[in-house]
From TrEMBL:
It comes from Lentinus tigrinus ALCF2SS1-6. It is found in: Membrane. Residues 258-277 are annotated as: Disordered. Pfam families: MFS_1 (PF07690). GO terms for cellular component: fungal-type vacuole membrane. The keyword Transmembrane helix applies. This is MFS general substrate transporter. The keyword Manganese does not apply. Its main location: membrane. The lineage of its organism: Eukaryota, Fungi, Dikarya, Basidiomycota, Agaricomycotina. One of its GO terms (molecular function) is transmembrane transporter activity. Keywords: Membrane, Transmembrane, Transmembrane helix. The chain crosses the membrane at residues 12-37, 57-76, 83-104, 116-138, 159-180, 186-205, 349-367, 425-448, 460-482, 488-508, 585-604. Gene3D superfamilies: MFS general substrate transporter like domains.
Length: 630
């Protein structure tokens, strides 16, 4: 951050802030291309003779690249700024998509299967695209969150992160318009179109403090290098008990503090900081004499001697429970700063983690496989199957999900700000809305058996998924604070690794169990068995009758001419419609209902805490402590 911006923030709608904001949107547009995997995944699988499970593994490693690096990138951007993220994003996206394009162009002759080494290299290329995409997104989100005031921060974050959701629509539309049916050129477009915006981000994306910044915003912003610029100590809001530092001179004789008397308070503060990592209690507050003035002043308590004050402070510190101390340190006048071990020790973190895991896993399963779902529905009882038309239906679903993903991120930001500012409710109440939309989307997908109606499930799922990831950053800020926002959000972003892996691989295994193709070579079966051993119990729910039906279809399809089979280009393809994946949808319906229940509980907890803090603020006793020499 530029020093001039830190000391003299420009107006809210200044040119430098707007340019940075627009560049953040552009970078986000180039960062969300892991959602476009369904637009080229089936073609890549057909070219390299991959099973649905293998295709899901490739797609999942792109998501793993996004979410597994989130804590690391978040910690770096909190300390170093967004510029380094743009460099990582440029090289990750460019090399990743060029590598995938190389494998697609090389292809495999008929009858051959991909080797283990080549498959791992392909997986690594998709992993690089995830690393690069997340680097761009983390840099843009960090700059946005720390450049806009609280009352419209959710809206600003929602607009930026909506670009991440719109990315798939943008690039799939470009490919469908300029390179219809040409997957190689599409992959080249992805390589160039995603890496070039990162160069602009390197030069224009900046963290710019909001204008008219007060002590609360200063503490939230996490840039308290020199509190004297604003005349207050770290982490203290305008209405909170405030520590005013006063130099010792002849006019402040009664505020002086002996070196010997400093030892006990400093030891107490240091011990407290090591155990609970408090928001208040920094070196600034211990470097000079101080007096404490709470926000409300109904009574005054004076300490005539320093010895009496020391006894009073010692007694108070001993009588205060650790839970009470931690509660006070976690939140002072609405300014929260919870991170590291303290965040992992909170129930709020694990509730949010479970909700995000269940809902994002459901969303990723659908997004990564909507192309396969559309092809299965289009091929069912269709003697006039055409590969070009199938690709058009596939691209339509990807574009629909992407558009609704974008819209959902914008709408949830506006809704969250409205919920807090107008309804006077915590933003966490929006979790209930998002989870309910996920439930409805899965029920719709379960009921649809015609390709012409699949757009309904895509619309609902896209809105819900966009709403989830548009809401999560704001919830993380509200619950854990802004100072370590990117790092905290990075840890929450690990949640899709669990739900996404289990649900997506389960979907692939379920689809392969209904496959019309021959078995894979032993080497590939071994690779899949190793990769899926952790989820074998969830991934094999197929009843015996379904297995027999699959055998009958396999035998029948091999004896029919290709026109009777609908002209399906790949032998490894399910052609029995919704029965190909309906068992997986049953699992996600249950998962989203569980997430809805957790969302209700989380919002209730948040409302109860909000009222608790409000009552404490209204009834806080007034204390003035004067420190004097003996």
């Amino acid at each position: 951050m530029h020093t001039s911006h830190a000391n003299h923030p420009p107006p809210l709608f200044s040119a430098v802030r707007i340019i940075s904001f627009l560049t953040c949107i552009l970078v986000a547009l180039a960062s969300g291309t892991n959602y476009v995997f369904s637009a080229y995944g089936p073609q890549l699988g057909s070219r390299l003779h991959l099973t649905h499970t293998q295709i899901n593994i490739v797609g999942l490693f792109g998501n793993i690249g996004v979410y597994s690096t989130a804590p690391l990138w978040g910690g770096i951007v909190d300390r170093k700024g967004p510029a380094i993220m743009m460099v990582i994003a440029f090289f990750g996206l460019l090399s990743g998509y060029l590598g995938i394009r190389h494998f697609f162009d090389a292809g495999l002759p008929d009858g051959e299967s991909i080797s283990l080494l080549s498959f791992c290299a392909l997986v690594f290329c998709d992993f690089l695209t995830g690393i690069g995409g997340n680097g761009g997104l983390v840099g843009g989100m960090n700059a946005t969150a720390k450049s806009w005031p609280d009352h419209n921060r959710a809206t600003a974050n929602g607009i930026v992160i909506s670009g991440f959701g719109l990315s798939a629509f943008l690039f799939s539309t470009i490919a469908h318009t300029l390179f219809p049916g040409n997957t190689s050129e599409f992959l080249l477009t992805l390589a160039i179109g995603t890496s070039l915006p990162m160069i602009l981000g390197f030069f224009f994306i900046r963290r710019i403090p909001p204008p008219h910044i007060d002590s609360t915003a200063r503490a939230e912003h996490g840039s308290i290098d020199d509190p004297s610029d604003y005349g207050v100590g770290e982490g203290l809001g305008a209405g909170s008990p405030t520590t005013y530092s006063v130099d010792n001179n002849s006019h402040t004789h009664l505020l002086a503090r002996d070196v010997e008397d400093d030892e006990e308070p400093q030891e107490s503060a240091i011990e407290l900081e090591e155990e609970d990592e408090p928001l208040v209690g920094s070196a600034h507050a211990q470097a000079a004499s101080d007096y404490v003035v709470p926000a409300t002043s109904d009574a005054v308590m004076l300490s005539p001697t320093h010895e009496g004050f020391a006894r009073h402070r010692s007694h108070s510190s001993r009588s205060m429970s650790r839970r009470s101390v931690r509660s006070q340190l976690d939140k002072i006048d609405g300014v929260v700063n919870i991170h590291g071990k303290r965040m992992f020790a909170t129930l709020d973190f694990w509730i949010l983690f479970c909700i995000a895991s269940l809902l994002s896993g459901t969303g990723l399963m659908y997004i990564n496989n909507v192309g396969a779902i559309s092809q299965s529905l289009f091929a069912f009882n269709n003697p006039d199957y055409d590969e070009v038309k199938a690709a058009q239906w596939q691209a339509t679903q990807v574009s629909t999900v992407s558009l609704m993903n974008c819209l959902g991120r914008i709408l949830i930001g506006v809704t969250a700000d409205f919920t807090k500012s107008k309804l006077r409710l915590p933003r966490s109440f929006c979790i209930i809305l998002v989870a309910a939309m996920f439930v409805i989307s899965q029920l719709a997908c379960f009921a649809i058996n015609d390709i012409s109606n699949l757009w309904k499930a895509s619309v609902l799922l896209g809105l819900a998924y966009g709403g989830l990831f548009g809401l999560l950053p704001t919830i993380v800020i509200d619950w854990f604070g802004l100072t370590h926002f990117s790092e905290n959000y990075g840890f929450v972003s690990l949640s899709p690794l669990f739900g996404g892996n289990i649900f997506s691989i389960m979907f692939g295994r379920n689809l392969d169990s209904h496959d019309t193709g021959d078995d894979l070579p032993a080497s590939n079966n071994t690779l899949i068995s190793i990769a899926l051993s952790a989820v074998a119990s969830l991934a094999s729910p197929t009843p015996t009758s379904t297995s027999m039906l699959g055998d009958v279809l396999t035998s029948a399809s091999s004896s029919l001419p290709i026109s009777a089979r609908g002209g399906i280009p790949s032998s490894h393809h399910c052609i029995i419609g919704r029965e190909c994946y309906v068992d997986s949808i049953k699992v996600t319906i249950v998962a989203t209902i569980v997430a809805l229940g957790l969302g209700v509980y989380a919002s209730w907890r948040d409302l109860k805490k909000q009222r608790k803090w409000a009552s404490r603020a209204q009834g806080a006793p007034a204390v003035v402590i004067w420190e004097t020499e003996d």
